């Protein structure tokens, strides 16, 4: 075998992994647009530019591809939030180990960072296929939702509850704090879920870097507005 050709040709394992990643990226878009039942194996393979045998070869079945797509989505999201989540989580665990309380100022800083990261992550162009997939799973949850919820959503929501509880001076497990957490998350995700209405009302041609910075500033305002009211609830 020609040594030069051999050195320039990726090993079979690398080519296989590249093909697998290409299929997952295509599947995320196709499943997001048509759902599990609506997406045909032909649509899935044509979108990835592979033959029909690629699904059973790499994933065992269409169901296997769907679950792998959910795990692929989790990995994509984790590349954006994983380091931040680990850093904040380490800080909170250190406080717990020392028997110390999380201060309101630090809680606000952490919460602002999390929500601004969410804005950058979910409002941009890259997240369109992610949003379609996740919204379908919210409406009709499957095993894919369970994996995404346990792997990404639940840890981030519970971290947010911890921070909001510290800001409000309330139990993070209380119903009120849980509801305030989802209110804040919803205040971010609305810019993705109601994307067309936002563009029409704001008279924006699209959401680019300038618009993302505006929304990140709005997020900081939302965190600044959090606080206990005279009756002990949030303002």
Which short descriptors sum up this protein?
globular, disordered N terminus, 235 residues, 79% helix, single chain, disordered C terminus, 11 helices, mainly alpha
Give a structural overview.
With 235 residues, this protein is mainly α. The chain has helices spanning 3-8, 12-38, 41-48, 54-59, 62-98, 104-123, 128-139, 143-168, 175-193, 195-202, 209-225. The radius of gyration is 21 Å and the shape is globular. Residues 1-5 and 230-235 have low confidence and may be disordered.
C-alpha termini separation: 73 Å
Beta strand %:
under 5%
Tally of alpha and pi helices: 11
What would the principal axes of the Cα set say about the shape? Answer: globular
Unreliable residue runs: 1-5, 230-235
The average pLDDT is 90
DSSP summary, beta strand count: 0
List the secondary-structure elements in sequence, H or E.
HHHHHHHHHHH
Largest sheet composition: none
Give the % helix. over 70%
- Taking all Cα atoms into account, the compactness measure Rg is 21 Å
Classification by helices and strands: mainly alpha
Topology:
Elements: H1 3-8, H2 12-38, H3 41-48, H4 54-59, H5 62-98, H6 104-123, H7 128-139, H8 143-168, H9 175-193, H10 195-202, H11 209-225
Helix pairs in contact: 2-3, 2-5, 2-7, 5-6, 5-8, 6-8, 6-9, 6-11, 8-9
In short:
With 235 residues, this protein is mostly helical. The chain has eleven helices and no strands.
